[in-house]
Specification:
This protein has 160 residues and is mainly alpha-helical. It has a domain of 72 residues. Helix content is 68%, strand content 8%. It has three helices and three strands, in the order αββαβα. The protein starts with a helix and ends with a helix. It binds zinc ion. Zinc ion (ZN) binds next to α2. Zinc ion binds next to α2.
């Protein structure tokens, strides 16, 4: 019965948070040893305790059942796994968000570029058309001038 009361007093003390899982040291500074319980309530159940605590039964030293400490250890590992999984999930979401943003930026860039190219093509087309007009006009002019010269020649021939 004394071991059970030790355990409950230990778990309600301030040290309970620092002694989660398998303990390595008692809060008195002494190293932890594994003992086997010989009580009727917990026969052959193994527990952690420091050597001083074993010698001075009336002092409050670390007491912990080995199976309970191992369970805590497993829960701590599970919690760590859960946190890592959450981290990985958060990271994945972040990467996806970044990729989405980059994709959107790329699309916007593409739109701007295609609009720019469209505009330039339009300007080029207009220039070509204008050039065509100018060339056609000048060609007409040339034809006009040529016909005037031809008419003059024919008229001059007629005179001779
Ligand atoms: Zn101790």
């Amino acid at each position: 019965m004394s071991t059970t009361s030790y355990y409950s007093s230990a778990s309600s003390s301030l040290h309970r948070f620092s002694s989660l899982g398998v303990p390595s040291k008692c809060w008195c500074g002494e190293g932890i040893i594994t003992f086997t319980s010989k009580t009727k309530e917990n026969p052959y159940r193994r527990f952690y305790r420091c050597a001083i605590g074993m010698m001075r039964e009336n002092e409050s030293h670390l007491f912990k059942w080995v199976d309970e400490a191992l369970l805590e250890e497993i829960r701590m590992v599970e919690e760590k796994c859960r946190l890592v999984a959450e981290d990985v999930n958060a990271l994945r979401m972040e990467v996806m968000d970044t990729m989405k943003l980059q994709n959107e930026n790329f699309k916007k860039m593409e739109e701007v570029m295609s609009k720019k190219i469209e505009g330039e093509v339009k300007i080029m087309k207009e220039n070509v058309e204008e050039l065509g007009h100018v060339m056609a006009k000048s060609a007409l002019k040339t034809v006009g001038v040529a016909s005037v010269i031809l008419c003059s020649i024919v008229w001059l021939w007629g005179r001779v």
